[in-house]
Amino acid sequence: MAAIVRRQVPTRLSRLASPIYRLPQQCIAAPIWLPSTGKTPNPQQITRNFQSSTRRNEKKFTKDHEWIEFNNDKTQGTIGITQFAASALGDVVYVELPTIDLSVSAGDSIGAVESVKSASDIMTPITGKIVATNETLESKPSLINQGPEGEGWIARIEVGEEGKGEIGGLMGAEEYKEFTEEEGAKE
Question: How far is 72 from 55, CA to CA, in rounded Å?
Fold first, then answer.
């Protein structure tokens, strides 16, 4: 027999939402008192506004297996290494982060990732200025293995006019997927 969870119901409406009785696969809510009018609303008059956005920031990739995800107006980007690169490196044991306020050109080395297998330079995909680094990687370099395209990001870059012109030379997600499949087939 299913258990019923009950909460004490006030005998009159209060300023807070009334308790909810939870039955298996069913919720029944008592009326809500509106302090501004002093009345209980008609359920047909209650509307809920939910907002959903399918807009995502644009992510681009390089042939060196770095990624950059741009904000909506492409004035800043977040840089990291791809899942493909993290898998090839193995367990990351050390990350050398770039210096903040460092001006860089596309293809410049901004740091390094060392693993039990090898070490690899981190190249910047576009021209700009480093404005932030993921300092958590200094104490937890394994974040790169756990989420190289998420929590394992390496740096944030302020994109200059020259950098905005270089975006077109980077690969999109589908193009990068094809590139890695071809590269995997060569090995």
Answer: 9
